[in-house]
């Protein structure tokens, strides 16, 4: 979260506000200089390079992404604890989804 807050302030010139940990749907509201929210940001982090395991969004986060459309951003922080971290920023990720995966945890709800 710290990396994203710094990026939004220092590189993007916006004023980010971190939401509470119980806030549904996203982690950060980032406002322009006029005080209007430009980005609703969901933050995911990876300890190393973002790989085939991917990152997951909750149902609530995905629904919020659909609702907010172009104003919703998914930020994936690769190598989050390292100095050479990288932030991948994806606008409106819900419109780009073309498949869903079900992991082995789904066995519990199957017959």
Structural descriptors:
111 residues; 27% strand; globular; alpha+beta; Trna Endonuclease, Chain: A, domain 1
Shape assignment: globular
Q: What's the SSE pattern?
A: HEEEHEE
State mean pLDDT (0 to 100 scale).
Answer: 93
The biggest beta sheet reads: 5 strands, mixed
* Strand arrangement in the largest pleated sheet: 1-2-3-4-5
Rg, Cα atoms, Å = 15 Å
Helix coverage percent of residues? 10-25%
CATH class designation = Alpha Beta
CATH architecture: 3-Layer(aba) Sandwich
Tally of separate domains: 1
Number of helices: 2
Portion in beta strands: 25-35%
Q: Helices and strands: which structural class?
A: alpha+beta
- Unreliable spans are none
Give the beta-strand count: 5
CATH topology name? Trna Endonuclease, Chain: A, domain 1
Distance between the termini: 40 Å
Tell me what you see in this structure.
This protein is α+β, with helices and mostly antiparallel strands and 111 residues long. The protein has a single domain (2-109), classed as Trna Endonuclease, Chain: A, domain 1 (3-Layer(aba) Sandwich), CATH 3.40.1350. It is built from 2 helices and 5 strands, in the order H-E-E-E-H-E-E. Strand 4 and strand 5 (86-91) form a beta hairpin.
Short description:
The protein is 18% helix and 27% strand. The chain has 111 residues and is of the alpha+beta class.
């Amino acid at each position: 979260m710290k990396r994203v807050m710094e990026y939004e302030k220092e590189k993007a010139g916006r004023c980010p506000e971190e939401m509470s940990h119980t806030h549904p749907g996203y982690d950060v509201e980032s406002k322009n200089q006029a005080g209007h929210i430009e980005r609703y940001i969901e933050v995911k982090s990876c300890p190393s390079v973002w790989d085939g395991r991917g990152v997951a969004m909750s149902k609530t986060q995905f629904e919020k992404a659909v609702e907010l459309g172009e104003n919703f951003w998914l930020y994936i922080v690769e190598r989050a604890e390292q100095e050479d971290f990288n932030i991948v920023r994806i606008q409106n990720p819900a419109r780009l989804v073309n498949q869903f995966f079900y992991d082995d945890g789904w066995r519990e709800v199957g017959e």
